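lol forgot to send this yesterday, sorry. struct tokens for the thing we talked abt
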């Protein structure tokens, strides 16, 4: 197997087993059965709650049986994205692992190390016969990627622990003690149709692709392009048009890497349209030459002119709303240097079944700032008469300067690595804030190995970092 020569063979073997199980958000039954079956094989007590979360209870080792229990936590689900030419079926197919000796990645899909590596680490630690540790409670939640449903529905009575190590972070050497809260803005309106004058019309397909995409929390500050915003940037400049189809983005917490807009326009405007697209191509190529160099903008004229299209007024107004939607970092934190305070990701757009929809995801370390940004995003669509709803809100996780777990973990990290860890907050959403609110008195931190380009087909995990993180976790569990 690909992991036979790796140091942490047990961890990688478990990760390989996890990767073979389809586990897109909302489709966690297979991974849940796997976790319960594994626990029974290890002769460990296990439980589930109504939300579908899995609890595995590991007794303390000899001499540590009566120590305070510790919870190791991660989530079961993964963000599923694939290359445009991939035939992978996330409902049935295993993720195909590629190991080059330095990194682990997937063939043509996202890897799912976010957060499969958390499960693999926790299970490897729990089954290590040579590891001394206090009683452990492994908690694996459902549907973190689509609204943190598992954390929100957590039955806290099933946890005795009041110390929690979340393993859903993506940067080695950092101990996170806080994170942004979030909210989703869903806008929906009728796409009124009008007959197309085929004699005077030309049909086009505008395709934006090749973007890096990535996590809308972890990568939002990296200056990457948003495919939906690039499409709306072009459409904003066109003289007149009627939409025939629109599709962009895949998940609310993924920066869109592709968007397609099909439309009809007046034949007399063809040269203007093509000139505008070429101009934006040049602009984008220069603007993103460093942060997102693979952008492809392609305009194709088609012979298939539809009988009907969305009215010009509605089409233009909707694309203008997309153009005006705040996207990317909106404010930097004044209290945590170098961290984005507030951001918005214009995540998904679609024209289907007579409706135009736009979904955005707003994050902020400050609840009022989160809400204000969401209101500004919503205003662009409310002016169109669209129905706007706010969903999947979750609280920020405020740092506790007096946290005993943070102080202990930082001291142990320094003792183990001879390096001082960075103790900070993160803009991406973590489940700790919700779990802390459900389980009163819970003291939480979040750590993890180096993962890159999560929520994209380029997602990969650094082997040496994952193995060093395992070494630190062993040291911490033995000495905490």
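and heres what i got for the seq, position by position
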């Amino acid at each position: 197997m690909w992991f036979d020569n790796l140091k942490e063979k047990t961890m990688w073997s478990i990760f390989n087993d996890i990767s073979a199980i389809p586990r897109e958000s909302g489709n966690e039954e297979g991974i849940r059965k796997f976790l319960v079956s594994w626990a029974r094989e290890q002769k460990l007590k296990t439980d589930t709650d109504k939300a579908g979360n899995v609890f595995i209870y590991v007794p303390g080792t000899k001499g540590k049986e009566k120590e305070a229990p510790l919870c190791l936590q991660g989530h079961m689900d993964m963000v599923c994205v694939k290359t445009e030419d991939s035939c992978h079926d996330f409902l049935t197919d295993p993720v195909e692992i590629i190991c080059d000796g330095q990194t682990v990645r997937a063939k043509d899909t996202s890897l799912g190390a976010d957060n499969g590596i958390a499960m693999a680490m926790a299970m490897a630690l729990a089954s290590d016969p040579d590891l001394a540790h206090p009683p452990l409670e492994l908690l694996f939640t459902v549907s973190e990627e689509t609204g943190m449903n598992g954390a929100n529905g957590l039955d806290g009575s099933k946890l005795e622990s009041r110390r929690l190590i979340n393993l859903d972070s993506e940067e080695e050497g950092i101990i996170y003690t806080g994170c942004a809260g979030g909210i989703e803005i869903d806008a929906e309106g009728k796409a009124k149709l009008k007959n197309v004058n085929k004699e005077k019309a030309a049909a086009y397909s505008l395709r934006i692709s090749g973007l890096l995409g990535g996590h809308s929390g972890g990568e939002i500050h990296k200056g990457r392009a948003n495919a939906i915003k690039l499409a709306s940037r072009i459409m904003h400049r066109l003289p007149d048009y009627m939409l025939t189809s629109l599709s962009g983005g895949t998940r609310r917490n993924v920066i869109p890497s592709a968007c397609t807009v099909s439309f009809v326009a007046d034949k007399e405007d063809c040269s203007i349209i093509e000139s505008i697209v070429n101009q934006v191509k040049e602009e984008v190529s220069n603007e993103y030459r460093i942060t997102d160099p693979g952008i492809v903008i392609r305009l194709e004229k088609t012979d298939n002119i539809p009988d009907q299209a969305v009215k010009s007024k509605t089409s233009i107004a909707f694309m203008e709303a997309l153009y005006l939607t705040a996207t990317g970092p909106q404010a930097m934190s004044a209290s945590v240097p170098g961290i984005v305070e507030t951001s918005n990701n214009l995540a998904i757009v679609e024209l289907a079944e007579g409706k135009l929809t736009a979904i955005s995801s707003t994050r902020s370390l400050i609840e009022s700032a989160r809400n204000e940004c969401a209101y500004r995003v919503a205003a662009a669509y409310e002016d169109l008469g669209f129905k706007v709803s706010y969903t999947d809100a979750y609280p920020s996780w405020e740092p506790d300067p007096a946290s005993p777990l943070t102080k202990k973990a930082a001291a142990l990290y320094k003792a183990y690595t001879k390096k001082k860890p960075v103790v900070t907050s993160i803009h991406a959403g973590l489940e700790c804030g919700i779990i802390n609110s459900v389980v009163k008195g819970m003291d939480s931190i979040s750590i993890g190995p180096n993962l890159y380009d999560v929520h994209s087909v380029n997602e990969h995990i650094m082997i040496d970092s994952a193995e060093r993180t395992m070494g630190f976790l062993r040291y911490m569990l033995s000495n905490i």
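The mean pLDDT is 96. anyway ping me if u want another try
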